[in-house]
Design goal:
The chain is an alpha/beta fold. It is 40% helix and 17% strand. It has an 8-stranded mixed beta sheet with strand order 3-4-2-1-5-7-8-6, with helices on both faces. Strands 17-18-16-15-19-20 form a 6-stranded parallel beta sheet. A 4-stranded antiparallel beta sheet has the order 23-10-9-24, with no helix packed on it.
Amino acid sequence: MFDSSRAFVKDVKRLVIKVGTAVVTRNDGRLALGRLGALCEQIKELNSQGYEVILVTSGAVGLGRQRLRYRRLVNSSFADLQKPQVELDGKACAAVGQNRLMALYDTFFNELDISSAQLLVTDSDFRDKDFRKQLNETVRSLLSLKVIPIFNENDAVSTRKAPYEDSSGIFWDNDSLAALLALELKADLLVLLSDVEGLYSGPPSDPNSKLIHTYVKEKHQGEITFGDKSRVGRGGMTAKVKAAVNAAYAGIPVVITSGYAAENIIEVLQGQRIGTLFHQDARLWEPTKEVGAREMAVAARESSRRLQALSSQERKKILLDIADALEENEKLITIENEADVAAAQQAGYEKSLISRLALKPGKISNLAKSIRVLANMEDPIGCVLKKTQLADGLILEKTSSPLGVLLIVFESRPDALVQIASLAIRSGNGLLLKGGKEAKRSNAILHKVITEAIPDTVGGKVIGLVTSREEIPDLLKLDDVIDLVIPRGSNKLVSQIKSSTKIPVLGHADGICHVYVDKSADMDMAKRIVLDAKIDYSAACNAMETLLIHKDLVQMGALNELIFYLCVEGVILYGGPRASSLLNIPQACSFHHEYNSMACTVEIVDDVGAAINHIHRHGSAHTDCIITEDREIAEIFLHQVDSAAVFHNASTRFCDGARFGLGAEVGISTSRIHARGPVGVEGLLTTRWILKGSGQVVDGDKGVIYIHKDIPVDS
């Protein structure tokens, strides 16, 4: 099974494989020739695929001991065997066993037409900078020749007092040696082969023990019960975990898996859920503790009030800190996003969804830039919009105020989370976010980065991340806590939410944007605008979905020219009744269709009036454009088309909060309530009335003389 948390393996080029003694030998101490042969075959396959493989092998001491015991038995008399047997010297065992071990590797690799090289090292070697430099050069040279370097500790001449007991020094066994080499040689992955499937929550023999697929130090360190030490070798699983944790937290991913399975290493490199993964970012992948819907909403409201109490400069600093945090964590965000994209591709999602899901190069820096623009805008909270003197000494102010708590439900696009969160901070609102499951990991890491940049005086709970789809119905019932719902997604999503809540809903369903090319259009301009509106980002909601052409352009040949350029760019064309027969293209199933891809509908209309009627009948009131040199015609279009954004001689792609100078957008609203079009900070505000008096009372209006005089807001 593919594991999206292991998507990073696609970038692995150099890996260190450590083979434990329990893998190399059988229970009786003899060599496990079958397992050793299967291992060498996997390494051969990896070598042929272009991987750089470095092998660290144990087993020399065990093999030497088995060999020397046999020789002692053969050379002993019956009387000698009756005497107490002296334990064999470990260093002598290592010297004899290393020779046998390398002879076997050499034989196997020769049969597979691969060369191998033996490199024996000791702990003291690594204290020498010149040695480490030479080690890197030698390994680099061997790998360039497609030779497999085989490392082992030179126990025969090691200065350790006892190879099994002395854990001092730079490394203390072959597991820690493998971790050290992975760091020293800049490997992309370390694979530790064991005699079990991976790390278990308890002894593997215990039926209640469960395999841990991803090790999280903060979670598992105190929960795991290790079994007995390995029957051979120095430390068994305890040593492997220690080495794996050290390597992972130094930036080298590690997988502990079984050396008994014939294809395990290859499956690890395919991203399969094999063994136990150790990764420095594993803690970020842990699901957050579930919080009830009401508890989350109440926490967001309480935190938002603390946010509103801050000064303008303090709120500005929070945004600037968030922008910095996004850039500092760009690599980590990209890894998580790539995992989501890989999982979506494997699941067979549509290309348009995958396009919206992917955070393309430069996206994080652009988001950070937008947040800084937002931070440097005038503070929107508490602005005096109108000031009236009601009576002598009685001043009434109408001021801007945060709405309260927003619930945003969005699909696919993780960049929406960043824009919405920054707008919520700027406008002083609490926020609950529910993203699509396909962007689960991207949303989680973005939420974590953003909330960790928010000071404790406000609290990260000002932005809550809803992780379960089942929580949405409960949230939609909280009209006493949540003040506005903004759905960003399909028509079905918006309709479902509108029918399921008493909370006001702001948003748009479809983005069926039209470009109408009038008979007086400059055709070079028309070509540029039409192509940009369709191909700049075809999955966006402001991309052109229908191209309307004035009938006179058919005779002039301009229609064929536009169609030609669209086809050259790979746009698939569907026609209305008139265009499909004329252009010999498939007829569109419906004019009310959002492709979100490199496809669009083409239709011929009689004039600007027909174009307007078509837009009103089949459009979604999102963004519509006219291309014409006739100013009178342009004014008719601009004033009569009832859409959130109407353009003259400009691409529909300009309908965007950042491009409008709003800093960011929470979405594009086609509703007709307080905000329409790209919704920035202003769309997330309401008003409050502030009355300042000097002891006045109503008392039946007997003692008050009303003058209702407008006065300057800055007075």
